[in-house]
Structure formats: structure tokens, C-alpha cells
Amino acid sequence: xxxxxEYSRDPEALVPRKNWIIYLLVALVSGAIYLGCVVSPPSLxxxxxxxxxxxxxNMLASGDWVTARLAGVAYLEKxxxxxxxxxxxxxxxxxxxxxxxxxFALTVVALAVLTAAFGxxxxxxxxxxxxxxxxxxxxxxxxxxxxxxxxxxxxFTTALAMWAFLRAVDKNEPRPALWAATMAASLGVGLLIKxxxxxxxxxxxxxxxxxxxxxxxxxxxxxxxxxxxxxxxALVIAVPWHVLATLRNPPYFDFSFxxxxxxxxxxxxxxxxxxxxxxxxxxxxxxxxxxxxxxYFWLFHxxxxxxxxxxxxxxxxxxxxxxxxxxxxxxLALCWIGFLLAFFTFSTTQEYYSMPCYPALxxxxxxxxxxxxxxxxxxxxxxxxxxxxxxxxxxxxxxxVRHIPTPADISVALGYHPKAYTLSLGHMExxxxxxxxxxxxxxAVAAVAFLIGVxxxxxxxxxRAFLATALMMVVFFHAARLAMxxxxxxxxxxxxxxxxxxxxxxxxxxxxxxYEFSSVWFYTNRAPLIxxxxxxxxxxxxxxxxxxxxxxxDARIKTVWPDANRYYLVAEAGQVPRLTTLLGxxxxxxxxxxxxxxxxxxxxxxxxxP
Length: 610
Prior knowledge:
Oligomer: single chain
Strand content: under 5%
């Protein structure tokens, strides 16, 4: 591989013949992780994971690709593109949990390759390769793509828009109009992925870069960007769905600045005013989201970028003066990161919201790693120490749990700390020493991964050490997938769904809001009645004209439960005492209890024939 400054010397050498080898290697590494982890189990998790998969299934069944629905209730919160790709995957591969995951896995592979290509263009082969490895193997991208959320797709369109922008304003670029159109198309697709932020992030970053480089009022720059043609391209892509969704979910216009229970103002108001403006101001209703402390939001990037975050200090030695393509790209990356983190510092914050700046961080890390220096050597030594400590900890745990029995499933050995679940790793507090006995195989694989990291970073420096680190992460992520299989009964309600599918036909009732047991509704493909759950995500749509009557209260369940028809009630084990008091001990038949969740019925199951 050539050094990181090759394109500074030769701006015209945009597509060297051997670049495809870099892209192939990055695709193989990312594919080994993300395509290798789409298999099931682990099952779709309760909450948003199974919800997104079910919305795609509902779209496929109904033929309505405009209005997302859950249990027949209009679900107006999200832009639709990630539902559409799930529907396409269902059409190609059939309806299954792994089919729902395929588009998101392919997106991450494409994102890693795109980051590598951006880095090759900006800095050279080595930097591009390292940037692609950073994207493919960093902890945050893996962690936040274990559920079916659209943020990886938004990250891809943001990165593509930023690269297209820089190429459009590059005076040595022979086809600026093509790249300006690519940027515009990325913005339009971004609007269909995450609404306004899909456009705001790239546009604000580009404007900040132009202001710093004193090109904001340059006629020549805007001539190369073709803003009016670009706006037309973005609107052609994004507007049709917004218009159709507005027409199908009236009223069309409502300018209320207030959101509250029982109020319905149509799609346009909810999607833009409530979901964009009021959410940014933390005034959205229903307030069905949490926010993490700002300090954690910033500091956790050391974990999300691990193992490559050990090289972050080396970025300070890079040049950010926009005198050549490499330094221009670094400056753009700095603007990109700075705007996005500042934006969410003053808004509601989830840890994965910063994912669109990962490619910028990857580009800076790749550039620093290719340049080498003392901070890279120190980072490699630090990574060796961290991997050794992790290996020692994992091996110690394996020794401690070698004789601990593992009855039932892992949920019986876990603690319960709901106040910690605001954080993505909050469930880590639930782990106890006995619970690790259920994780012997994943721990053994993780130990092998860390030992690879120790050996590689102790023996080698530079590229070989980076490759050993990447291999460490590939093995570690597969250990994480094996661990998630063990957590299946705790994080998913699929085991209860399988019991329901084998039991006599009956109407389902959810003892909690739809999201709480969403995997049951996906794996049974049945819409439940929801007991005392008319709040959070489905509340707004439940007040739309023609919404189905699926929400019941204590009084209504007391009238239907004694019915001759069979009902099944899915609840948390902790709800059983209250339900017993409400419905009577003789009317509750426990069908199954798995993972802290229980399946109840109003009638015993018929005896199996001998």
C-alpha cells in the first residue's frame, strides 16, 4: 500500500488499479461480522427491534407502503425507508427475523466500504484501508446495529453527502455536477430515513466548512454545487411520500404548538411539529424517550470507537489547514463531528444519535494511523494492556463459574436494575457471577479474541498490529452474538410465542404496552388487545379517526375474561399478584413462564391424547 500523502501529490489519481483490493478486504471483514450475525437465534428483541420487523410485515400484507401501522393503529413517528427495505427483503427471502436484518447488515458493510473509499480518495490507500477497518470493527456500530433502527442508513447517506460535497467543491474534480447531484440525492434519501436531520446534518456541516474556508460567498463554489438543481433532486425524492402520508392522515394543516393526551392533529403536525420541533425542545408528547447525561454522551465515544479510540490522541498531530485534499478532508471531518455533537448536546440525547459522525472519526483515525508516530505506538501498547486485562478478567470468570449449575435459563440468575436501562449497556448491571455460568462458550471465545489482540499488539507494530486488532474484534463480536443467544429468553419473548403457536387458537391480550412484548406479536403475527397500555408510541395514532378499539382497561378485561372463548394474557411475572386479585385465582391458568414473562389463559389447555 502506498503512503497516506499520495493523492496530495497526484490529485488526478482518483482510481488506482489496486483500490478494489482494499474495498474487498474491508467488505470481507465487515461482512464476516454483520452478515455473519444476521442468523437467528438470537431472536428479535422486544421493544423497537420486533416492532420495526412487524411494521414491514404489515406493509407487505396490506400493500400500504405509506402509513406504518401496528395492531391496526397508525404509527406516524418515523420516515418509511427502513420499513421499505425490510418489505423488499421479505419479498426476496420470505418473512423471517434474519430477512428483516439483512438490509441493515448490508448497509453497514456498504458504510465501511464507503468510508474506505472516502479515505483512499482523500489520503491514500493505507489511510482509506485503516478508516474502513475502524468503521467495520468499532464497538458502537456493532452495538447499535443489533436492533433494527435506521441510524446506520442515515450514517451512510450522511457520509456519502459529505464526500460528494467535498468532491463537488474540489477545483480538480472534473465532474462537479455529478457529485453535486449525488449529494442532493443523498439528502433526499436522508429525509426518507430520519426526516429533517437527514438533511440538516450534511447541510450544516457543509455550510460550516465553507464559512471556515472563506468559500461561503464564493460564486464559483455555489456554481459547482448547483443548489437549485440539487434542491429539486432532493424534493423529487422526498416529497411524494410526505404528500401521500399527509393526504391519507388528515387534518392536513395544524399549527398548534401544544401536544397532549387525547389530541389528534393528523400526520403532518405530528411528524414535523411534535417529532422534530417539540422533541428537540424536549416538549414532545408522549414523552416516551429518555436522554443520557451530556458528559456520558461525549465520553462514551471512547467506548463506541474502541479499539481504535486508543489512537485518538494522534489526531491532534494532524494538519487541518485546508491547503490540500487531505487537510481539507480533515477539516471537514472536524466540522462534521463538532456540529453533530454540539447539536445533540443542546437536544434530547440517545447514545446512538451520534452514529452519523463515526465515519468522520474513522477518517481522522485512519489518517493518523497511516502517518504513524509516537502516539500510535503508545496507543498500540495501551491496546495490548487493555486486551491483556480483558483476557485475564474473562479467564478468571471462567474459572470461578466452572462448577456452577445452570438450571432453566439465564433470567433466573440475573439481577434487575431498571433505572440503568436508559443506557444501552444498562443491562450489564444485571449480570451476576452465577449468570456468567450460562455464558461459558461466549466467554471462552471472547478470551481467544483478547489473546489474539495481546499477541498481535505485543509482537507487531503498524499494519500487522492493526490487522490483528481487527481480527480480535471479528472474533469478539461473534462471542457477543453467542452471548445474545443465551439472553434470548430475557430480551425476547419468542419462547412464549412458540408456546402460543402450539396451543389452541385464542385471542391475545398484552399486559403491558405493545412494545414490551413486541416479539410475541411478530412471531405469532397476531395483533393483541392491550391492557392499560394506551400510552407512549401508539397513543397518538389511537385517537385517529377509524383507529381500532384494541385498548382495554380493568373493567373491560373483567367482562371478557370469563367468556367461553379462549384468551391468552402475556404479562410480566411480577404482574401475576395484581392480575390474580383482579380476575380471581381460579380464572388464571398458567400456561408457561419463561425469562421472567408468563403466559396465562382463562381456560386450561385440553389434555393431550395418549
